[in-house]
Amino acid sequence: MSNIPNNLKYSKEHEWVRLEGDLAYVGITDYAQDTLGEIVYVELPPVGESYASGEEVANVESVKAASAIYNPISGTVAEVNEELDGSPDLINEDSYANYLYILNDFNADELENLLDAEGYAEYIATLD
Amino acid sequence: MKSYIPHTVADRQRMLAAIGVASLDELFAPIPEKYLLKDELPLPLGVAEEEVFQRLKKLAALNQQKISFLGMGSYDRIVPAAVQSIASLPAFVTAYTPYQAEMSQGLLQAIFEYQSMICELTGMDVSNASLYDGFTAATEAASIMLSSRRKSDTILVSQTLHPFTLEVLKTWALGTNVKIEVVKERGRRLCVEDVEPYLHGQVAGLIVQSPNRYGIVEDYTSLAQMLHTNACQLTISSDPLALVLQKSQGEWGADIAIGDTQPLGLVNAFGGPSCGYIAVRKDLMRKIPGRVVGQTLDIRGNRGFVLTLQAREPHIKRERATSNICSNQALAALTTAAYIALVGEAGLKEVATQSYDKAHYLAGKLRGLSGISLEEESPFWCEFPLIFETPQTLERALKALSEAGIWGGVRLGKISGKAEDESTLIVAVSEKRTKEDLDLYSTTLQEALK
Amino acid sequence: MSQKLLIELSKEGRRGYRFPLSDVPSAPTLPESVRREVAPRLPEVAELDVVRHYSNLARHSFGVDYGAYPLGSCTMKYNPKLHNYVAALEGFTNIHPLQDEESVQGALEVIFNTTKALSQITGMAWGSLHPLAGAHGEYVGLKIIKAYHAKRGEEGRHKVIVPVSAHGTNPASASLNGYSIVEVATDKRGLVDVEALKGLLDESVAAIMLTNPNTLGLFEEEIGEIASLVHDCGALLYYDGANLNAILGMARPGDMGFDVVHLNLHKTFATPHGGGGPGSGPVLVTETLKPFLPIPDVIKSATGYRWQWESGSSIGRVSGFWGNFLVYLKAYAYILTMGSDGLKAVAQHAVLNANYMLAALSDYFKVPYQKRCMHEFVLSLQDYKEKWGVSANDFAKALQDYDYHPPTVYFPLIVSEALMFEPTETESVETLDGIIEALINLGKLAQSESARLKEAPLKRSVRRLDEVKAAKEPILKWQN
């Protein structure tokens, strides 16, 4: 049973977004980390680069395969989670506490295009 | 009797009964009637092994073998007996891809060793388990370069690449938004000074080849530096045997090294199979396409090998792959590794040096013959261009050489499709050619040009 | 037990091979600016060292010659030894790809005849032997489709449909050609959901990629209707030939309405897998798509076999020379050996063998879809995972200890804890009984002593390997 916190927004590509003031935290969902298996490497974007929504922004690798991460809302990368460098499997432990990167200067309107917790739960039910 | 099918009449009956059907036809019931073939396939009936062998022997005999000076991507070199023997070991030949690592340690180790040897030869950090051939390797290199620079869509290529490599790249770019731009040659070489004007914000990188299509060894001094300053990458394609004498891709500062290992232990065989190699700098490790063998430990702490760094084929969504290659040329890569192991660095140096000396000996004898000219300005390894006055004299020369039992060289015009190349012959000299062969070549040519 | 690496066997000054001495003078070396600076450090070993090394590595590998290899979708049938002899004939190995046509008539005849035979077997008009592997064939096939639509001014067709059960190379090959992928669902029978498909078809679709039988080993019975629907909306049908072994001589993709077919000669046509390659992935097409095939083609003229370079609509060159010649040469030998009657027997016995195994195993393991199959079938070990914590992976590892190569695991993705078996027609009923017995034993062990499976394999050269470590801390070459 996938963990899907209520206070987040979700993309169909299994990313989540959490707003904290001017910043948007982005990570991957519990469903995603479970499907990937143990994560062995994370490739994060350079700080300062801007990405449109839907643009490939990062890569998460498990033993099974490498998976592209698509930026859920347009914005500029303010910070990346450097802890993932030595311990990428933190994402498996808790994929919501361990974000991938933080956006500032993001397009808040695009949040409407994302799913809420219920919508995401319905969506992943169709996948299985 | 049907070859290779062991079932007896009794076997079939027993099996059908166990399944619960009366006949084999019942098992094909899911196929709609209209698709089931009413007649046999329009092919002859099966025959005995001996009959097939005799028939194919006859076909083989229709192919002529002569003393070969043909090159341009495939070379007539000595293949040691031990290498052929190793390449025939059934445990390797009849094995599948070693996904079940514990029962495939031998094969995995062999490929790990191949990867290590390619890194040594190229001076690069990481090699994969091989690609289809040296030509398609260029498309893989282009993919890596494009994925390394945001918003890039252009690949620069030297005009001196093998013409077939250029064609393969063009086909690969067809139907995508990738642009291929050609950096013009000067004096049959790529000149580093000429590259900068081609650079712009959408260029991901440059692909060059040395020795190039003319056999000329190119000088890439300052090239990598200049490209890197402009946020571009450098791919160098090289005959792996040339790498013992000429600067390796690593020494030139390249990001990606590609080529074909056919000259290292693989027969000509009308061009296939050969074996492409690709090796990259450390920081491109996770972008390398295809299969990679890695070293690890088992639960008892013993060294073992596994396929690792799975191809970039997204697991959750399966599109957006940068490569669709899911295989390698395993047996060919193993054969190459066995060749390198057997002959060693000393042997590679011997082969490369003999090829060099013999090519220069022949060029020396041909220089001065009236009716032809040679490339004088640039250094070459074991291939060089022979320029005739007209395409007709070239044909006359080839005919005379053929009658003397020699394949004189490759008509560059036929390969490049360019009118200006129609009087150029590319002559390749391998360690297999003797002084006698070389003298015969030059005296025959001299006669023909009179 | 660990084999030493070649670099660990190396001894300075040891030579392994003697070349003939040079009989020409030394030429002045390359200019310093282009000369190699640091010599590569490669192993220095004797010939016997090399031979022993690889012979011992061979002892720790596993081929079809050693035991059954029922890998689903791989068609690991016996590789006839005749092929090795044919592929060693000097008239085939000692010819250069760029020799004049007149001097390679035998080779050109092989190309022509093989292309012709494969066209007849698949019911297609003509093809190309250039693609160097199955995935390469898929890539080329899709490029042909793209060029076809572009020529008709229909570049707007940007989607390719694949079933959710498709092999990963299908969408990858499509996306490499710039297509976006749309998945069509599988219905309760395990077949393409035709109603769902109807909803997906419009003028933005370029093609649908199917394999038939599909990856569950089931024949797409509604292929006729699927073909009509797809063609009616102006799209094309692509056939992934991975499962051709099930219908050889019985039915042909061309007759079912497929426009483009790729084959895997290293599967259906018995050429050796070589540990992962070289293979060969010919592409075959309908008359309409012939002009788009890669160049060059081989034609039969009054004066012999000739290269055909002219083709205005061709997608161009897809590989260096003319494909993996020695590989399709073996496939040609296979076609000659089997003939029309033999190829049909191949399909009949492949399907017989698979159904025999399925019938025996369905009493012990869950069969997700139908009780009958074509040449391969899928079992789900979901129950074992839930009740005893034993996964499909554990079963596979345990099967290694019985000297069988395990079946395909975790594919297709739509079946959880999947094991896919394809015994092929070259396995005897005794071998099948052995595999069945082993699996039934393992099923019992999973319930009583699951640790035995979880710790397997116990009898190979290494125990279970740490794949996470390999991916996290990659060591991809030896340390010098």
Describe it for me?
The complex is a heterotrimer of chains A (128), B (450) and C (480). Chain A has helices at 30-36, 90-93, 117-127, and strands at 9-10, 15-20, 23-28, 39-43, 50-51, 56-62, 66-70, 75-80, 101-104. By secondary structure, chain A is α+β, with helices and mostly antiparallel strands. Chain A has a single domain (9-127), classed as Beta Barrel (OB fold (Dihydrolipoamide Acetyltransferase, E2P)). Chain B is an alpha/beta fold and 450 residues long. Chain B folds into three domains: 9-58, no CATH class; 67-74 and 345-449, Aspartate Aminotransferase, domain 1 (Alpha-Beta Complex); 81-339, Aspartate Aminotransferase, domain 2. Chain B contains 14 helices and 15 strands. Chain B has helices spanning 9-19, 24-27, 49-61, 81-87, 90-93, 105-122, 134-148, 163-173, 223-229, 249-252, 330-366, 391-403, 412-416, 435-449; strands at residues 67-68, 126-127, 154-158, 179-183, 203-209, 233-237, 256-260, 276-280, 292-297, 303-308, 372-374, 383-388, 406-407, 410-411, 424-428. In chain B, the strands form four sheets. Chain B has a seven-stranded mixed beta sheet, with helices on both faces. A four-stranded antiparallel beta sheet of chain B has the order 11-12-15-14. In chain B, strands 1-13 form a two-stranded parallel sheet. In chain B, helix 6 packs parallel to helix 11 and helix 7 (134-148) packs across helix 8 (163-173). Chain C has 16 helices and twelve strands. In chain C, helix 11 crosses helix 14 (429-448). The longest helix of chain C is centred in the C-terminal third of the chain and has 37 residues, at 325-361. Classes of the chains: A alpha+beta (128), B alpha/beta (450), C alpha/beta (480). At the B-C interface, helix 1, helix 3, helix 4, helix 5 and helix 6 of B face helix 2, helix 3, helix 4, helix 5 and helix 6 of C.
Question: What would you report as the Rg of chain B, rounded to the nearest angstrom?
Answer: 26 Å
Task: Report the order of strands and helices of chain B.
Answer: HHHEHHHEHEHEEHEHEEEEHEEHEEHEH
Count of DSSP E strands of chain B?
Answer: 15
Helix content of chain A: 10-25%
Which class best fits the helix and strand makeup of chain A?
alpha+beta
Structural class of chain B: alpha/beta
Q: Count of DSSP helices of chain B?
A: 14
Shape of chain B: globular
End-to-end C-alpha gap of chain A:
12 Å
What CATH architecture of the largest domain in chain B would you give? 3-Layer(aba) Sandwich
Task: State the CATH class of the largest domain in chain B.
Answer: Alpha Beta
